[in-house]
Fold each of these.
Amino acid sequence: MAALPHPPDAAGERGDGDSEFPTSTFGRPPVRRGRRSRWSGWRRHTLVLVALLGCVGILAFARWIAATPFVDIRCSGQGDGSLVLEGSTLPALQALRGRSVVAIGGNVGPPMPVDALLLHRSPRWQVDDAARARQLAQQEGLATRLAAGTLQLHFADGPVLTLAAAPRGWAGLGWLFWPLAGLALLLLLAAAVVLLARRRPLDLLYALMALCQAGNLLFIALETTRGLGLPAAALAPEMLVRLALDGCTGAAAVTAFARHPTRLPRAGWAAAAAWAAVIVCLALAWTGVLSPLWWWAQGLCLALGSAALAVIARSYRREPNPYAMVLRRFATATLATLLLVTAAVALAAQRGDVEPGAVAAAPVAWALFLASLLLLAPFLGRSRPLLREFALLAGIGTVATSLALLSVAAFSPSALNTLALASFIALALYVGARRWLLNHVVGRSVISTERTFELLYRAAREVQAQPARLSALQARLLRELFEPLEIFSVDRVPARARVVGGGSALVVPVPRADEDPTPPHALVLRYAQHGQRLFTADDARLVARVVDQMRRAVAYDQAVERGRHEERLRIAQDLHDDIGARLLTLMYQAPTPEIEDYIRHTLLDLKTLTRGLAASEHRLSHAAVEWKADLTQRLAAAQAELLWTFQCDIDMRLSVVQWSALTRVLRELVSNALYHGHATRVEVQFSLERGELLLRVADDGNGSKPQAWSHGLGLGGVRKRAKLLGGEVQWLENVPCGIVCELRITGFADRS
Amino acid sequence: MAVKVLILEDNPVARSFLCRVVRESFSDTILITEAGDLENARRHISLTGGAQGLHGVDPFKLILVDLELPDGNGMELLAELGHYPATKIVTTLYSDDDHLFPALQCGADGYLLKEDRFEVLVEELQKIVRGQPPLSPAIARRLLTHFRHGTGSDSHAPDSGFAPASGFTTSKPVPIEKPLDHERLTPRESEVLTYLSKGFTIKEIAGLMGIKWFTVNDHIKSIYKKLNVSSRAEAAVLASKQGLV
């Protein structure tokens, strides 16, 4: 693919639905100068403030839960729906282990019958409406009795045990509470960071999604506390609130995907439809019309997920931005796992006798997965391996627990087996699919290390051979390394290579050779791997190193070339001065004109050689006029006529070897015509067309039968030089008299 | 009265060869003074009235100077003899423009290559004395650049077909002393110089411009005169050397 010469302004005019690169992130370089400068000042203060408020909020939440009364007993549900005491830290209860509890009583009202539903924590994931109502009633009854101070447990065969309710305390929060609360806090911080960094309306949607899921996590944290007794005030509206949170997340996703990274036509309509569906659903749920509510809720979530997936898939088809591709994969993964979880929970509920803990695990894992994807999304370009692994684990956990739940629902193994099965599936998935998932979901480098090395090595070699082509070679290397959909140059040069547009583009400064007349510029690579992959901070580092090495290679090459040139000059000077002077003396004292001529030619050859050594390169047109002037003078001295034609389609630069070989060939041929053929007219034709060089020297002398010539020093030299240049030479008889010599070199222009 | 000629050449064989060339070239009675180094040459010149040639005591009419000498470079002597009323010719083995051009800048009227055949040398010498200085295409290119940069934008000069100052890396356009108005090339002179830089011979140029060949020669002489203006003062020589060499 050719580098597209986009003018820098054009990039910004491709609609604001384009990736944010030209308009926002790269368009404000002063803000972007460095992380330090960016995150100092008001941004840092606000972020610290948000973090503090978040911590205070979480602590207040935890304190509120810690203050609610509970009894520290562990129960389990039986297949027939009865509630059985499993264990407790209270010594009075030790004797009653394994007996089922049929009712709870206390200071308030008559004893209330209870069953295994008391163990179901989350009303949101209660499939049956009636069961949810009973669950809420039992929880509320339990809460009222606990609030009154005492709780009586009525066992199946008569015994009644009275327990004193005590505040839960910090220790009663359970081991899952703090990690979940921490994750909620992280989501809050991610929302704050994104909002503060970019301050775009679009980021409000991200913040909304993050906060909704943070809320969900807090509910889950609340419901994973141990013992019996939950704040009834939080549980009663839980179903509706969590539905609202999930609905908002889905609708925000639809709205955001319709505008970012590519703005779709009728984006507003899609967003409006999503929000309308959420509002209508909530309103109907509030009035109680929707029944069964759980199925409606799942239907809404799945519909919103499908809508988001459709929108982002369309966005990717419109413009193959790898960011859209990754978002599409995220959406697919979320939707698929949600479907799986829904199916698993529905099946388990149908069966009715599945351990509530096993049912609750799958939705929790799914919520964690969604939260981790949300955390990952804004930082894709920065390559956070820890986050990535976490998201991967959460995803695998969701799938594993769902599968385990499905199998439990299908074959009803014991709870222990469920756990073992889930662990086994998770481990197998992690080991087997990790590499594949990393490569395909996040889009890691597909190019192998070996290939990378090969490309780098070749580029370095070529840069050393042709330093002038540095920028072209660099562009080619970058294209081969990343296979971007487009490359264009901008005149705003960053100090070093960096990733912009959330990983959709990479800006690389172009090193310049010393005498490079082009103004400084940078290359922008967009949509790596044909839009299949995001640029990461690792890519930026690699490219920075590459640029550095190339610059060094050029500098080194220049130094070497300077040294070589100086060395050549010195050799040339010594040769010319010492050997030249001696040859001159010899020539003056030559006994015969033949020897004199021979020495003169030697001297001329020496001078050509030394001139070739001293000069670094010759432009073809300059060399041609020198040849012509030289021949004119020599032919005029011999009273012969010169007919000179010269044409070339490119004025290439001759290497020293080419220049010196051509000069000597020409001189030798003309000398032959003059001194052996006694020509009065020499015709020299020189042409270089489409890389093919043709040198034709024709005379009207008395030479004939060139096939019969013995190849002495002169003709041998011509042959040797023709071969050196990669061409062929042949002598023919001229019409009506004389000799024609033709030197033909194909691909001459490529050999310089 | 005999024509006095000074030949400065350190190689005795070459010296006697040059003597033969000089004797062959002119029909006048020739009185040749030979010198093997700069010191001797300066001594002979001061005997005939010094470097400025002011005393008018029978000065040399023709001076042949070799460039590489045991006690220095012939160019030094040429610079000293800026006003000496003789035809000054460089005889050397160096045929490259890096030697030729500075020699012309120092006031040399001609340039002979010692390895040329006897007959060629005789003919060239005669030409120079008649006032036809050598002008290779590379020199013409340099002159074009020189005058173009020296006189600001000489819009009359037709494009030589070569990117200015691209052919030789050493001649970056250094601002030299601002030239006087009469140093500008006329459009005709520019044209001649452009043709020369493209390798046309004087005869061909005459045909292309529709003028006689000796008119072309006049233009060339005039160009040289303009070039030599800068060699009147040694400071100017240095300045233009910095700009050109």
Note: The longest helix of chain A spans residues 537-588.
Amino acid sequence: MARRQSSSDRQPNVSRRKFMSGAAVAGAAATTGPAALAATGPDAITPERTPSAVRPNAQVAAAEVGTPHTVPRGAGGPAGSDFMVDVIKSCDIKYLPCNPASSFRGIHESLINYGGNKNPEFITCTHEEAAVAMCHGYFKIAGKPLMTLVHGTVGLQHATMAIYNAWCDRVPLMVLGGTDLDAATRPPGVPTIHSAVDINSLVRDFTKWDDQPVSLQHFAQSFVRAYRFAMTPPYEPVALALDAGLQEHPIHENGEKLYIPKYVASAPPQGESGAVREAARLLANAERPVIVADRAARTANGMKLLVELAELLQASVVDQGGRMNFPSTHHLRRAPTVIGQADVILGLELTDFWATVNAFIDNGDNDGHGLQQSRIKPGTKLISINSVELHTKSNYQDFQRFQVVDVGMAADAEATLPSLIEAVKAALPNDRKDAIAKRGEESRKAKAQAKARTLEAAAIGWDASPISTARMAAELWPHIKDLDWSMVGSDRQMSSWPSRLWPMEKHYSHLGSSGGYGVGYNSPAAVGAALANRDLGRFSVNIQPDGDMMYVPGVLWTAARHKIPMLTVMHNNRGYHQEVMHVQRMSNRRNRVAYLGNDLGPMGTRIENPDIDYAKLAASMGWWSAGPITDPKDLGPTFKKAVEVVKSGQPALVDVVTQPR
Amino acid sequence: MSALKVRLGLAALAAGLVLGQGAALAAGSPEKGKVNFTKYGCYQCHGYLGQGSVATSNGKVIYRTELPLEAFMSFVRTTNRAMPPYSEQVLPNQDLEDIYAYLESLPKPADYKSIPLLNQ
């Protein structure tokens, strides 16, 4: 949309609508001649024409390098961005994690002044990657999406990795990128550098939908449409371009009353009834059915439904942990090794069905491709329910390898579970009840044995320094067990000890991980999740890898600034440990001694010399903090203090120097 | 018999052929082994004490390994699964033997039943 110019610009004063109508007329004039152009009335545009190659006059040259004119605002009625705020409020978006930027200054001003900084409330972020990851973590607790605003170019470039994580993790969020579309009128210099013809092209491969509204009504429709698309499984991020002119100019309704479309949620897609019946028949008649779940339980009800199905069949459940799908304490929750015993496998929203039923070992075999072999018995029947099939794109390979299945449903697993449960009830033969009960008893015994093995493993290195990750988890537990706690970061980098030692029984006990394995997710996503937990009165605990922390450490300040209580425990192994192992592997494969320099791991993979003092880092941004702790005996008393601080409403960080995993 | 046991058996046989022909290995040094355990990157997947990890060593524990020295050394030389093999060029025999001595020198872990935090 064109910006209004000051009279001194001596340029046509052309609104976007006038420009569009003028453009249409100009097109018509090409075919109908000057007589038609002359008939367009007093609003007709008579643009001043200049040769394209003319040297800039002094005024134009000054405009290229000087401070842009201040364009009078506020005249002519409410700003377009005020209407945008009304639209946003209609979707009840509670927070706006955001790093400020001039390309959305119009809507920024409307949000805090016209909108009262409420629904959404600004959450000041120091980096766009942190803002998006906060939206990501927030959704996984609240079940409602947030939005962020970014510069359409440089801000979106910062935000991109976090958007990809959300895409891979099937999380909805809304990214609005500021841009100034009218090349003839936008201010020169920075605003022009920060504009692009199609900002959304940067993220189109990993957003579900995007648009660039050219009118306020267009914005209203596209915002509500984007929200609905994002919130229909498979959940995904969406993007909208926000023209600066559209934000900053007064509302001109041109005789048409602006309206806000009502958001009505779309029902999630369910499995086709014939496929559901066939899946139920296979499961009901299986000797050893195994259910594998990754992002199956979108809500608390999803977990409840999965428990119902598993108990009906007394089927073992492998929780791959993309979401909190199944209680860790349930006798049917089993280790992935049960997959090898299965005769029917039901995969629910699996990221990678191929790797669920096949093993890959990165050992250089098979002409360098690595060893690949089946994990399952020949003839094992595979059933897949996966909504991602409904919306997959070609470029990024997050859809993983192709796996042939016997029954496939492009459908949402949680929405399909009720009909599948009913179909299984109908299909269960009466004479199989004893066999099914026996399966349950076997699972109980196996579960008890596995628990003993886990505790034996936890005892090894109990007094070690660096501190064992099992001990760190065990020392923390007594201080949170009586609270309504929620683990807001991933524990995969510490051998999943919290998931193995703490009873995880609620749908918010853990949140899964990043999805795209883009490092820099954990700390901001944890703050976003803690923000949602704050409103629900829950205690947030985050196990924080050190490498991940250093991508966007500024999010610590955001948590302190906005009084987001959470306990962060640093899993400080002083390395990008995944890469430590990768470079060691390559060195061995090539029969070379890995060069360490003065570090404890291959050069370029360690975070030491000097060691980072995370307690000081956190303290500098307003956190209560302690550490580095190297003696495990100090953990208990420190955790006790830290938990009290968090209960008082502040964030607290304890830096623990740990074993690698 | 699991694939691992078969592999370890073959490794032990190979070790007997390779190592048994020469003089017996000198006794390893636990102190040097502790340094070597870090220097050669063993700790990366197994932890500084060989306690293992579900994420990086399939949960396998080499803390006070029950493998005989020869089988242990042969496994390290020939493994071709998740763990990459270490050639003698990369990890000399004596250094490997020191690593073994280190792992064997570690104190017996406490019974988890005696640790209150593991019995809540």
Note: Chain B has one domain: 3-21+28-107.
Amino acid sequence: MKFWLRIVVIFYMMTNVSIANEVNVFSSRHYDSDIELYKKFTEKTGIKVNVISGKDAALQKRITEEGKDSKADLYVTSDAGRLSLFDKKGMFQNSISSVIKQKVPENLRSENWVAISKRARIFFYSKDRVKQQELKNLRYEDLAKPEWKNRIVVRQSNNIYNLSWVASLISNNGIKETKKWTKGLVNNFARSPKGNDRAQILAVAAGEADLAIANTYYYALMLSGQKGKDQQEAAKKVLPFFPNSNDRGTHINVSGVGILKNSPNPKNAITLIEFLLTKEAQTHIVNNTFEYPIIEGVEPNQLIQDMGNFKQDLNTNVNQYGLYLGEALKIMLQSGWK
Amino acid sequence: MLSRFNIWYLSSFFISLIVVVPILMIFGSFFETTTEYSSILKETFLLDYIFNSLILLLGVLILTSVIGIGCAYLISFYDFPGATFFKWALILSFAVPAYIYSYSLTAFFENFGTAYSLLKGLFGEGNYNNYIPKFDGMIGAIISISFSIFGYVYVLTRASFHYQSQNLIDLGKNLGFSKQKTFLKIILPAARPSIVTGLSLVAMETLSDFGSVSFFGISTLTTGIYNAWITFDDLTLANRLSFYLLIFIFFLFYLENVSRQKAQYHTPSKGGFKTKTKIKLKGYKSIIAFSICALVFCISFIFPVTQMSYWTYLFPKYLIELNLLELLFNTLLLVFLSCFVLILLSFISNYGNRITKSKLLQTLTTFSISGYAMPGVILAVAYISFISFINESLLVNFNIKSFFIGSIFGLVIVYFVRFYSLANNGIKSGYLKINYSIDESAYLLGYSKIKTFKNIHLPFLRNSVFLVIILLSIEIVKELPITLIMRPFNFDTFATTAYTFASQDLLEGAAAPAIILILISSIFILLTSKYILKEQ
């Protein structure tokens, strides 16, 4: 019997033991650099940061099912659409401080969550096969035109970056127009969608297509040499282009964070968000993940700066993406976008 | 006598119930009313999901049976250079999880990937990307899954071939059969139950695979359920997809059970077993046999290991920054606890089954196999839902959730549900080899049930237990989706660390934890290879 008692005690000790001064983060941003950032926060404030990272939807499900017993204070994810959908389910509390509100532009936050970094979804084109004339005033909307037949690569329709991107188009052009557009775009695909954003850029470099749609940081990651010499060389064969610069601006998306409804340590959670929006933290983020900063006075990583300045779409509130995610997936699938 | 009967019966019943409940939960929860989120998806893509799952299943079954049976045949019946080496080397493929195989496959063959770098290094600049075949999508998934789990077919078929008596083969010779005819008419049919068991394990692993299927972006029933249920809260669609998955699984049950019933010939206790004489291959035939085994070994094991080692060599900082000791401790802790619980409870359940001979128990135990065919991520979420359901049904306001969710304890429970059938069937197959008459003789000699178990069964079962422990350990070291969602704060294993890097699009960083994961699994395999491949 003693033996069994011991086993039970061991198991019990392995269950969560709470420490008073802590903040619990559920994150589907899997950057190990985020962990380093949390360590800096602990050194500064003495607040321990506990992290569980995992697949987005599964983490949300766990938070939802844990309900009021959930230990999660903060939920971090790298898509505005996901954040706003989760917000709509009433999972966040409304306790964003005025310090935070001052630092983050209105179109990059909602009442209950804020962006901590941003990225643009842009074009990467072949230096040799795309003429400068073709690029003049190029908009997302133009990709459906017949002159791009068999020249475009993009990843699958169920990818959240694509969903939020198409959602932003719906919010600007309406469902009907966007549906016409997705049909045209799918017609122009050079191959059946596969691989991640980097694979699209590589496909252009390898000559499989002329233009890829991908997030900015993938390109910088390749240029940084972290993917090896050959991919660095490959990245140099393509150039970035920021579409819609002459109208509403280029589509941007964010990584963001919200304080959960049942957060046991909301004060610490706010302290952590405030920290993430300091110059120190923002500099750490942009230099490790190649995203754009949220606050004024921090420059992006040099590789990102070299891509040039661009006009951001400031009119479309990123919080809107969540409204049209379902509709976006529907029309993408109906247009034959795998 | 009666009280003992009840204890065994009840405990076995209870154990099977733990496994079955979360699985029932999955299907039960889907009968709730739900929002019609994606009615159009349902009409358009339901068939796609089923079709893709079928293609994947068929592809993997064909590839694994060709490789598995082929290698088992060569190694069991022929003597050629390297045969003794390949006999155990081929099982090393178990050490490579399908998702890590997928990483390697992509990394090697993608545009400007490792293959490109190699060609460039050898022949200078050139546009090699167009000539390098691309193994992605469905083909990529079929290859990744097949080469990481063909070992099931290989091990079980080889064991069955091994125990085939020379008498059978001589019989063929006497009847004037050619080698080919002997193989097709005598050897293969006699090994059929083992082959079917191996293939049904392969089929269940394939259906439950989430890592490589989602990595390659294929819409199977598994990813469909995940998206419908977990991403979109569309219980109706999830319900329908689960229903189809259930049909698949029941079919596999049936196959597995039928094959097992046929396999119930106990090893003859009297003589008559004549050791096989292996045919010595000479000349080009021995080269062919060697090449086939070498090829399978290289593709299944050397290839992913080399790709991962190459990266670790190229980017050593990921290895240096790895918190080795902590990851090792976490991984081994999970292995130890889970094996302990699984083996102990499987013993109780098996022994209960054996002495009560209850049909109900047997059915329940058989049903528990579905945990193995259920995708880990879905099982984990079902478990979380179940716990939260129970907690809310409790009258007392007592928080049991933090005890069961996000704790090592909870993690071990879900592992238990997932791997119970593996443990249980492993021990069951050991039990099947012990003739019932042995038990009866023991009782006649006045042995109690416990004493019979301890003095008679255990020694007989030792090899089975070793085999089960090794299989479990490898599975747990490799396990990803359950660990990811169920783990406590700040808890990482080699598998979750590899995943973290992979999802940052830094497969280079995933290489270091992956190579260590493969190393640990390989050590487990080598330690017990003599039990897996037990001669005589």
Note: Chain B touches chain A through 64 residues (CB under 8 Å).
